[in-house]
Design brief:
97 residues, alpha+beta, four-stranded antiparallel sheet, 38% helix
């Protein structure tokens, strides 16, 4: 039973990370469209709603995990010790921690 519990928990974590990657790509695309239309990136993610996104998606659907956005960087915690960061101006990913 402990092995099955671990497998379910691990599988859910992997699924949540995949969902966060997909949702991040949606936000990045919306930011690029906003920038093309307005000549600048949005000041906050809510500026993308409703024209570019119906709503700002969460980074994860279980536990807490919203995307953060500041100074043209999008990030979220993949887990307690790893943050993925996308730099809109530079069009590149980095990691912290």
């Amino acid at each position: 039973m402990p092995i099955l519990t671990f497998a379910i928990a691990y599988g859910n974590g992997e699924l949540q990370w995949k969902i966060s990657d997909i949702n991040a790509e949606r936000i990045i695309k919306a930011c690029d469209e906003y920038q093309a239309d307005n000549g600048r990136f949005p000041d906050k993610l809510d500026d993308l709603v409703p024209k570019y996104l119906a709503s700002v998606p969460p980074a994860k659907y279980c536990m807490t995990g919203d995307f953060k956005y500041y100074s043209h960087m999008l990030w979220w915690n993949r887990h307690d010790f790893h943050r993925r960061i996308y730099h809109l101006n530079e069009r590149r990913w980095s990691a912290l921690d």
